[in-house]
Amino acid sequence: MDRTTLEQAILTLARDQDLLAEFRADPEAVGPGRLGLDAEWSAVIAGGDRDRLRSAGLPDGITILVSRWFADDLADSTSKGAFHVDTTTPLPDPDVPANLVFAGGASHVPDLLARPEIDPEDQVQRLLAGYERLAKDIAEADPDVLIVTADCHFQSFRTGAYVIGTGTSYSGSMEFFKRSDLDIELTGSPRFAEALVNAVRAEGLEVEESAEFPLDHGQIVPLKLLLPRPDLPVVPIITQPGRSFSPFGAKVFGEVLRDVVASRDLKVGVLATGGLSHWLDPGKFGKADIEFDTYLLQMLQAGRGTDIANLEPYALLDHGQYEFPNWLIMLGMVGPGVRGEVYAYEPMEASGGGWSVVNMLLPERAEGANDE
Question: Which Pfam families match (predicted)?
Answer without folding.
Answer: LigB
